[in-house]
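fwd from M.: "can u put these together and see what the complex looks like"

so here's what she sent:
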Amino acid sequence: MANPQARSPSRQPRRPVARALLACFLVGLAACTTGAVRPDDVRAPFDQIECDGPRVLQVVAHQDDDILFMSPTLLRHLDAEHCIRTVYLTAGDAGDGLAYQAGREAGIEAAYANMVGLPNLWVEHLHTYEGHLVRVLALVDAPRVSLVFLGLPDGRTKGQGFERFGFASLEKLWRNELPTLTSVDARNIFTREGLIGVLAAIMEAFDPTLLALLDPMRFHGNEHSDHAFSARFAYLAQERLVRAPRIDIYRDYNISDEPINIAAADQQTKWSSFVLYAEHDLKLCRDAATCLANSPYFLYSQREYVIRDVLYTGSLRNDGACLTVIDHAAAAGDSVALAPCQDVPSQAWALTRAGELRGLGGRCLRLAGASPSAPYLASCAEPAVAHAAPWSRSALGQLSARGQCLAAAQEGQRVIATPCTDPPSSVQPNQWPANTWAFGEF
Ligand SMILES: [Zn+2]
């Protein structure tokens, strides 16, 4: 097992701050700390913190998603003293009360203080974003590290919600099955549009150069509903920013099925930060050496899978139909066709700046040699050679690789790649150019 005290100084005294802060707000202070620190030490509001390097905004669902799925990249940012803010959309309540939620927050605070190597002391501030009061915590000795808690109900793995909060979930809000979602402390009520607006305001204020999301597409397999839908809300929010950040997408639960891919030293550090978190999570076993190490969490601590620099993600639509992976029982070489849009993993796509067009299973869309050719989905690691297909998307919505454009075939639901031609300059309302695609909302 990893040494939980690998990053010194670790095991800071349990934070004396946050609970006392509630009292601060009751007397109306905008921001305050406990007696251990001076308010003068901390800049407020935190959005005006000066950052020399990248400004990294992580948006996740629960108070451990970042240390489990976005690390060791997270550790690199912290070591390089980048400004980093993490937004937790849900309270992580698991259908329990505030005590469980408070434990998870205490856990993530302890983990961050440990990762940075500074005392576990935080200052809390209530920010107003689009009319909603949002809790922001910054590390006293390094306010460039901050946490934002929106406190929405944990939606449970399938988005079915918990009885305690009326079976509410982010997924139901996304699908308009609920008109509003109320935070577990009843402080805020979000409509679908309101939540996107608040996230956009948080982003606008922080002005991230890099946005880290969980996987909104679920095309890699099993995934927690809250993970995917926190990412979807954040993805829509970032589309409203004047200055677009780079977007990295981190896979989550299903990485346990993949090979170990991070260095031993990073595994150890990642695990130690999670063990520290787990001490506060009342539902987790505290025995790091035995039962915790036999949990999926240990597998997560050995892995990090990320799709870097995503330009667009969502469904790919042509004339109301969606580009769909078919025959996807096969291990490789699946083909694509048009089908009615259904928000299923076989219709989720992501285009990266490097020109990868990723689909089901995270595999890459490639072209067979001849023209017109049939695009097929295969491992991104497949030797590139003649099949290399760095895709690019034109302002007109054409997706092209090696001079060939993805296009709906004249007949049937087939999708082919043909030499690119400009779409007609004027298009009738009911005529969608065969080789023009729009990224839609999943
Ligand atoms: Zn989670």
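replying to her w this: Residues 18-307 form a domain with the Rossmann fold fold (CATH 3.40.50.10320).
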